[in-house]
């Protein structure tokens, strides 16, 4: 959900060009669009009727990127389980922590504005210690009641642990086996529920685990496919971004289509088609085609702020719903202001909080490792 490198190319080049390893700009743009869809769905679901299935794309993208970034180093024994999980924690925790803090402040502000509610206050108080450790709440129905979308980060950490301890050791057919078993557990639940918006509650944890492991392991399978050394830059990448936005319902929500019901058999089938078929296709193609040079900067920007937007957007929902419902700001304008504020806050969070904190943590653990090595050889 949260890893990329960097890439630069000349403007206007449509023939195959060498892409900088480690960064897929088209996938950056897709990840940003997916984060926008999740944020809009939580604010006003008609703005992105299928925003919740962006989570499955996040899981697939994480499996793809992590396999490419770490498998060779793990195989060469330069990256063990502890180092891998420490790196994942460094990548995920700072923005996770910021999201929890902002959501707690928003919840306390809501309590102050609407009148004291002891049940809500106790839920915050008793959930906060475990949630701060990236662990589910032991007292609430929701795994992360303070910042509801954070359940996906917990399950991504579990999938990361499974990758470094089990999946790296499996042949390709073993990863395919994980996909098939996870799909067999996931499909009946989605068909019965009639949508795939599942995973945030304690009673849904088996389905959340199956949902995570299917897409995460499928991303690893895709990473094991032959990857092109050169990725053509052109409008094929732009069309892939439009396809991702369309499938998530962004065009529907802004008046360019017909709204889709929340739960029907057709919605369940649509969600399954995206999770099982369309997201893998977009991931495969997005890793092979780059956007035109003129779209590269916004795609990179969306990729850079996507994880921060996912981590902090829940804190902005109540203030902007107050703006819409109590102040009377039109719904569409409220959604635009909400997303605009979210993007600005996310950029500031990345530049002034996440990146400095991660640099310091990485430097600290690097010094600690060097000191340990020096002590062991003394």
Automatic annotation (TrEMBL):
InterPro entries: Acyl_transf_3_dom (IPR002656), Acyltransferase_3 (IPR050879). Keywords: Membrane, Transmembrane, Transmembrane helix. Residues 26-349 form the Acyltransferase domain. The chain crosses the membrane at residues 51-71, 92-112, 142-166, 173-191, 203-223, 235-261, 267-287, 299-317, 329-350. It comes from the Bacteria. Pfam families: Acyl_transf_3. This is Acetyltransferase. It comes from Novosphingobium indicum.
């Amino acid at each position: 959900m949260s890893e990329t490198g960097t890439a630069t190319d000349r403007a206007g080049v449509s023939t195959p060009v060498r892409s900088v390893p480690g960064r897929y700009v088209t996938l950056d743009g897709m990840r940003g669009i997916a984060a926008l869809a999740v944020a809009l769905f939580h604010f006003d679901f008609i703005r992105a009727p299928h925003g919740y299935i962006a989570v499955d794309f996040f899981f697939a993208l994480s499996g793809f990127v992590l396999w490419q970034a770490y498998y060779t180093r793990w195989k060469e024994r330069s990256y063990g389980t502890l180092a891998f999980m420490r790196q994942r924690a460094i990548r995920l925790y700072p923005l996770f922590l910021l999201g929890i803090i902002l959501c707690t402040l928003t919840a306390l502000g809501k309590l102050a504005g609407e009148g004291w509610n002891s049940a809500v206050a106790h839920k915050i108080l008793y959930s906060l210690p475990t949630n701060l450790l990236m662990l589910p709440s032991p007292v609430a129905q929701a795994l992360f009641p303070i910042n509801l979308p954070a359940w996906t980060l917990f399950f991504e950490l579990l999938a990361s642990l499974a990758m470094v301890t089990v999946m790296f050791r499996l042949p390709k057919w073993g990863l395919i086996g994980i996909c098939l078993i996870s799909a067999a557990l996931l499909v009946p639940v989605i068909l019965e529920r009639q949508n795939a918006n599942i995973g945030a509650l304690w009673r849904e944890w088996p389905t959340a685990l199956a949902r995570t492991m299917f897409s995460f392991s499928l991303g690893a399978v895709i990473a094991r496919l032959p990857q092109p050394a050169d990725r053509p830059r052109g409008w094929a990448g732009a069309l892939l971004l439009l396809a991702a936005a369309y499938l998530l319902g962004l065009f529907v929500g802004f008046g360019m289509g017909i709204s889709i019901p929340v739960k029907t058999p057709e919605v369940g089938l649509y969600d399954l088609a995206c999770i099982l078929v369309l997201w893998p296709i977009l991931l495969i193609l997005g890793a092979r085609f780059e956007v035109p040079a003129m779209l590269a900067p916004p795609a990179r920007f969306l990729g850079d702020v996507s994880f921060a937007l996912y981590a902090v957007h829940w804190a902005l929902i109540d203030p902007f719903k107050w703006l819409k419902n109590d102040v009377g700001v039109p719904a569409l304008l409220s959604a635009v202001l909400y997303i605009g504020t979210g993007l600005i806050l996310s950029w500031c969070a990345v530049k002034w909080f996440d990146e400095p904190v991660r640099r310091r943590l990485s430097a600290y653990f690097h010094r600690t490792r060097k000191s340990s090595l020096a002590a062991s050889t003394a």
